[in-house]
Design goal:
Strand order of the largest sheet: 10-5-6-8-7-9-4-3-11
Number of strands: 11
Oligomer: single chain
Distance between the termini: 34 Å
Helix content: 10-25%
CATH architecture: Beta Barrel
Number of domains: 1
Shape: globular
CATH superfamily: Cyclophilin-like
Number of helices: 4
CATH topology: Cyclophilin
Amino acid sequence: MTRHRISILVAALAIPALLAACTGGGGSSLPTIPVITPGPSVDASAEPTHPGPTYPPGCPTAQPAPLGAGDVREVTIDTDKGPIVIEVKGATSPIATGNFVALADCGYYDGVVFHRLVPGFVIQGGDGQFGRSPDVIPDLVGTGGPPYTIQDEPITAPYKRGTVAMARTPQPNSVGSQFFIVLDDGVADALNSAQYGYQIVGQVTSGMDAVDKIAAMPNSGTPNNAAIDPVAMNKVTVSTP
């Protein structure tokens, strides 16, 4: 399969004082850093800045169909730290849930890692560029995604421990494949009041112990909190409960 040539959109990674006043478990002050990440664009004529990953055959190349309001899916992420089970309800964010389920179902997330670990805040993953590139460039970790982005939607539920939501840039309609899992109820107010809404796709119903183990792995510290020994999503499966 011909490799997509990826040109990275360079974007600012700042949400002013997003978490400056928040505290997580243990009462320590959380770092003022964003959840957002730049998304890629695909340009077959552009000179690649680095080797692009092979986009899995059968994965969507444009915004997938939304989930119906009554649709529920169970997404299971198998990791070396244990399985993580996520309940996905179409009524929460039809477009974002349809996208998340489609990417999980086509194998996009298989082998992709949790590249960002912020204890007391979130773990973040879904960067297919980092997960598959034969020549990883550290400065570009967290910038990968599919060859499209999806439309924004209103946030219809509060964030809490175990909430799974999509990462994005400050630009409208910039969600791709990256997502994060909230680690602590204490960050909910900051996320709920953030300038940019992060579309919620699900809730962890089993496996928060695995999420916590991943969050406790070594990271580079602020501001990037890059995972030093990233934990992979070995296999991601979708079922209908």
